[in-house]
């Protein structure tokens, strides 16, 4: 269990705000604070978005049961306590599977990946050259727009994903399609894909807040893109304007209901 510090303020006990433990609140004033807390207002704003539908993607599968004694269980003092219960639950679940079942699952993932992407080594160097030759700033912009040195690792990963999309024909008719990057972080993969698929709509999804250098480049390119701050668990595609096609008059108007345009989901290092 993670223990939060408790402070005393002129004899009044202060506890971490349950909505945002970065600040504390006088315990006896908690109910009042909750109504006024900026985190509460932010949450309300987020929940009012058309692309928010609580837990719409969580499915109906069985819940992962936390084994109290398992490594990473609720009492664990692991290396990253901020990873929170969900990461601890996943770790506990993986440990609880046992080696044989885990290896079987890993083999299924590899087989599925090879079925879709082919077993051959990526011609990554070729793809990297192809990406760097693009007119925009995609991979190269990571070097110029951030203070950290150019990351060859990330560039190779972006090149590989763009190459797979191309090989599978998923960059064709890009103007008709939208690309949705889940766990987009700073958005460089989305930017690289958008540069390889001119005219495409791009939706960047992440529950976190970031500096947004890739968004700046996308704006400069006048790309059709939107960044949505939402947990994937709660993401409702029908509420994302760039994913809709049709008149938009919908049920209240005379026109046909807008439908979803074909969209392609992407992710790189989607974890957290
Ligand atoms: C390791 S970072 C990778 C960022 C970027 N895709 C990259 O490759 O550099 C993982 C990102 O996924 C986001 N993420 C993880 N789980 C998420 C969820 N359930 N909903 C939305 N974003 C999520 C995190 O906020 C984080 O920005
Ligand atoms: Zn608060």
Characterize the largest beta sheet: strand count, sense, and whether it forms a barrel: 4 strands, parallel
* Overall pLDDT confidence: 79
Distance between the termini: 19 Å
The general outline is: globular
Unreliable residue stretches: 64-84, 140-149
Ligand set: S-adenosylmethionine, zinc ion
Indicate the CATH architecture of the domain at 124-267: 3-Layer(aba) Sandwich
H and E order: EEEHHHHHHHEHEHEEEE
Rg over CA atoms = 22 Å
**CATH domain topology of the domain at 124-267:** Rossmann fold
Beta-strand residue fraction: 5-15%
Helix content: 25-40%
Q: Briefly note the structural class of the backbone.
A: alpha/beta
Strand order of the largest sheet: 6-5-4-9
The tally of helices reads 9
CATH class of the domain at 124-267: Alpha Beta
Structure commentary:
The protein has 9 helices and 9 strands. By secondary structure, it is of the alpha/beta class. It has a domain at 124-267: Rossmann fold. The strands form 3 sheets. It has a 4-stranded parallel β-sheet with strand order 6-5-4-9, covered by helices on one side. It has a 3-stranded antiparallel β-sheet with strand order 1-2-3, with no helix packed on it. Strands 7-8 form a two-stranded antiparallel sheet. β4 (178-182), α8 and β5 form a beta-alpha-beta unit. α5 (124-132) crosses α7. The chain is globular and about 65 Å long. The two termini are 19 Å apart. The structure holds S-adenosylmethionine and zinc ion. The site of zinc ion has 8 residues, from loops.
């Amino acid at each position: 269990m993670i223990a939060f510090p408790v402070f005393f303020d002129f004899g009044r006990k202060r506890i971490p705000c349950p909505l945002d433990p970065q600040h504390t609140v006088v315990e006896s004033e908690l109910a009042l604070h909750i109504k006024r807390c900026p985190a509460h207002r932010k949450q309300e704003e987020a929940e009012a978005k058309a692309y928010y539908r609580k837990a719409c993607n969580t499915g109906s599968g069985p819940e992962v049961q936390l084994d109290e004694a398992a490594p990473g269980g609720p009492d664990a003092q692991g290396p990253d306590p901020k990873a929170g219960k969900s990461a601890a639950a996943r770790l506990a679940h993986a440990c609880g599977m046992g080696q044989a079942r885990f290896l079987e699952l890993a083999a299924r993932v590899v087989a599925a990946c090879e079925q879709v992407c082919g077993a051959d080594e990526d011609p990554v160097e070729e793809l990297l050259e192809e990406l760097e030759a693009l007119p925009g700033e995609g991979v190269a912009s990571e070097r110029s727009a951030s203070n950290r040195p150019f990351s060859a690792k990330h560039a190779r990963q972006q090149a590989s994903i763009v190459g797979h999309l191309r090989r599978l024909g998923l960059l064709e008719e890009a103007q008709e399609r939208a690309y949705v990057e889940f766990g987009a972080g700073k958005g460089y993969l989305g930017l690289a894909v958008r540069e390889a698929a001119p005219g495409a709509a791009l939706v960047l999804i992440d529950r976190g807040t970031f500096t947004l250098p890739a968004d700046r480049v996308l704006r400069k390119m006048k790309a059709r893109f939107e960044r949505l701050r939402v947990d994937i668990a709660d993401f409702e595609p029908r509420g994302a304007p760039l994913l809709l096609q049709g008149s938009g008059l919908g049920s209240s108007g005379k026109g046909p209901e807008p439908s979803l345009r074909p969209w392609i989901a992407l992710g790189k290092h989607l974890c957290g």
